[in-house]
Amino acid sequence: MRIIKFGKVPEEAVEENPLFTGGAVTRQPMIGEQESSFFTMAIVNFAPGARNKFHTHSSDQILIVTDGIGIVASEIEEHRVSVGEMAHIRAGEKHWHGAVADVAFSHITLTATGSQTQQTEP
Predict the structure, then answer these.
(1) What average pLDDT does this structure show over 51-67?
(2) CA-to-CA distance for 46 and 24, rounded, in angstroms?
């Protein structure tokens, strides 16, 4: 068993990653593939206006909002989300998520171990 305190996990800059656009993004790895046979989990922090580009995952993805206001969007719908809300994105669904223009945003991301991300937006 391991107890993880969110504030004690250092933020890692997500630099020069073509999946992100619009501002700074950091990641706090919580559970990596070497620590679980079933899932991976991290906190992703978006500066105001930062987001990822359209992409898919080979597993379902769960996003749990921990701070700020964000947007979770597919090709056919867009939702503003805030603390106390979560999004369930099915495997293969093209989507993006990130911060609104004037407020930072953080979420926990949960995917299956071995899940592959494919960027679909240039």
Answers:
(1) 98
(2) 6
